[in-house]
Amino acid sequence: MSFRLRAVRAFALLVGFFLMGAVLLSAMVVLDWLLMTRLFSARAAWLEGMVVTVTVLLAVAIVRGMVAFLRAGRLGPVPDAVPVAPEDQPELWEQIRAAAEATGQRPPDELYLADEVNAGVAEHSRLLGLLPGRRRMHLGLPLLAGLTVPQLRAVLAHEFGHYANLDARLGGVTMRGRAAVMHTVEAFQQGGTRLHFVIGSLYVGYARMFLRTSQSVARHQEFAADRTAARYAGRDTTAAALRIIPVLDGAYVHYLETYAGMGGSRGALPPVGEVHGGFRRLLAARTGERLAELSAGRRPPRPHPYDSHPPTAERVALIEKLPTDDRPGESADGPAAALTLLRDPDRAFAALEERTLSQEAALLPRRSWDDLVMARAVEDADGWSRPLRVAVARALRSSAQGAEGTAPVRRDAAAEDAVNDPLPGLEEILDAIDHGLLWMDVADRMPKPHQASRLTGPSARNFIRPKIFDGLAGLVHLRLVESGHAGPDIGWSGQPGLFLPEPWEKGMDDAIDAAVADTPDTAPLRALLTGPDRVSA
Question: How many whole angstroms separate alpha carbon 474 and alpha carbon 462?
Fold first, then answer.
C-alpha cells in the first residue's frame, strides 16, 4: 500500500474516532425517545427514569471526550520556559527563520527556551491542522549548549519538516491526529466514575486500532523530516546531530543528579545561572567519548508502543545512505556551539532558573561550586565512616564488659548506647584493628542485608571488606579536611570529590587495603598519618 493510501486510511479512521461519539449520542437520543414514547407505560416510569439518567451521564462523558478531542493541540501558557522575542536574540531567530524558509514553512510566532535536551514546534491546531494556526517553538538551552550551529540547523529543519508535508498533506494531519487521540484517551482515564471507564474503554480500543494503523504513516513522516534536515544542513551534519542528542540527554541527566542537586541535602543551590548553566562546564571538560560513557550504563527508557520515532540507529543508517554532498564534515574543534547564538547565555540561564525553580527552591541560599563540593564530600565521608565507627564502638563496649566480668547486655541495647555515646576516631579504630577485633568482632557488627547474614569465613570477609574500606577512607577524608590538607575538586571531567595531598593520592588505597587484609596491618596507614604531610588531630 502506498503512503498516500495509508495516510487516507488513517485520516478516515481519525474522522471515525470523532464520529463514534456522535453515533453514540444519536443512539442514546433515539433510545430515550423510544422509552418515553413507545416502550414503557406509566407503571414503569421508575425504570424509564433510571435508564434516561444513565444515558444522560453517558452522554456527558462522551461530550467531554469530544470536546477534549477538539481542544487537543491548543496552545496554553508556558510558565516553565523563557519567552524570547526576535529583538532579544536576533541571531537565533535568524537561524530559525532561515530553516523555516528552506523547508517552505512559516516561522514560529513564539519562541521559548526550556530546560531540556529537546526541540519542537507546536501549532495551535484548528481542524487538526487543516487550517493554519499560531506556531510555537521550544528549544532546550542544554541542547543549544551541546550542539554546534550546523547541527542546530539540522534540528530546526527536522522540526519544520514535520509540517512540510512533502509527501501528502494528510500525513501531517495524521501526526497531529495521533496526539489528539492520545489526549482524548487521557481525558477519559482521568474521569473518576464507572461510566467514564465504560465509555473510555470503547475509545481506548478504537484509539489502539487507529494508532497501529497510523504507525507507519507517523514513522514515514519522521524519515521525511530527517531527509529534509539532510538536504538543508548536510547529510553528515544531520547524522552527527542524531547521534549526539541521546548522548547529551544522558549527560544532562547525570549533570542534574551529580552536580545541580549537590546541595539538596544541605538546602543550598549552585550560583545564580548555574543550576542549568553548569552543564556547559561539564561539556567543555569532556570529549565525545567521555560524554557517551555517562549514558552508556543507563537503561534506555522503554519506548512507547506507539512512539512515532524510529530507533536512532535506523534513522542514522538511512541518512548515511543518502548521496554525499559537498559540505565538509565537522572537525572536533570546528563550528562553535549553538549557544553562541545567544547574546547573553548567562542571563538566559538565570532567567530559566526563575521560571523552573519552585518558590521554595528559589529562596534557598546560593553557594559556590567549591563550597558545595566540600559540603557534599564531608557529608559523604561521614556517611561512609559512621557504620564502621558504630560497629567498632559496639565491639569495644562488648570487649570492655567481657574483660570486667560484667554480665553481657543485649545486642540491641549495646547498639543504642554505641550510637548515643561519642563514636571512636581514626586512631581508636586503628588500635582496635591492631588488637585483633576487626575480623573477630567488628565485621560481625557491620550492617549487612539479610541475604548475607549467614555468610561465614572468607565469603563473609570478602562481602564486608569494601564497607570497612569505605569507612576508613571516609575517616581519612574527614581528617584531611579538618587539618586543611584536602581541598574541593569539582571534577567536571570525572566525579566531584576532594583533592588530596600527593602522598595520600598515591598511597592511601594501598594503606587501607593493608589495614583491611585478612591479616590486618595498620602500619602503612599510620605512616601516612605521621609523615611529612601529617594530618593528626
Answer: 19
